[in-house]
3-ketoacyl-ACP reductase (Actinocatenispora thailandica), 261 residues
Amino acid sequence: MVESTRRVALVTGVSRTNGIAAAVAHRLAADGYDLFLSGLPGYDATEYGTEDRTTEVITALRDAGAAVGYRPGDFADPAEPAALVDAAIARYGRIDALAAVHAYSTHTPLAEITAEEIDRHLSVNTRGSLLLVKHFAAAYRQQVELGGPGGRVVLFSSGQRLGPMPDELAYIASKGAIEALTLSLSASVAGQGITVNAINPGPCDTGYASGEVYERVAAAFPTGRWGTPADVAPVVGWLCSAEAGWITGQVIDVEGGFRRG
């Protein structure tokens, strides 16, 4: 174990060089955090036909001077959240922030949805995030003597409360639960000096859309462009800073005025 004197952030959902998790990791590293990352190898290839770029993300972070640990894992395994937090503690001896960026997502009409698909969304997106917060809070409770501005948790939701998403029913069920959890989790850990907030990044260009769909979504933004990970990461950085210590239990929409038809 390398005892870190710097604050340590755990960031989940790392796989793409142009992904939100990678941008969040770069921002937190620039803000002085050491990093422990998590991702699910093969997910992008299976769901989107794109190659996993985790190694490139880690290399870029280290080339920029960041200390980076990594553990692959699948939150469909209920033991993985605890194992991930334990791995971060084993690496650095502390953990100060959690950015749960990971998401499992499929597009399935109501008539074709299965119980297995619903269960996987809920186990990865909802249960995985809730257990991560549980184990993060337990670990943070053991390090109060290290001081600092307090613990920080940033969860990720979606735009499900702002407009219909009819072919993403399992996904919106899992992400709607994240928004409901945010307020109650914030009350559960406030006494430990931990804040809990959630971000809805809106449609974010991470390489998953193209052609007519890409153009149609871009036209729904007042600026005529998609949101990018670079638009989202600074908000995570601020929520994980000392300045945001009085902000908790909030869902923040970071979607550039996106207009739902």
User: Anything to note?
Assistant: The two ends are 52 Å apart (CA to CA). Residues 45 and 51 are 5 Å apart (CA to CA). Helices lie at 20-30, 43-48, 54-63, 80-92, 115-141, 169-189, 211-219, 229-239. The chain has a mean pLDDT of 94.
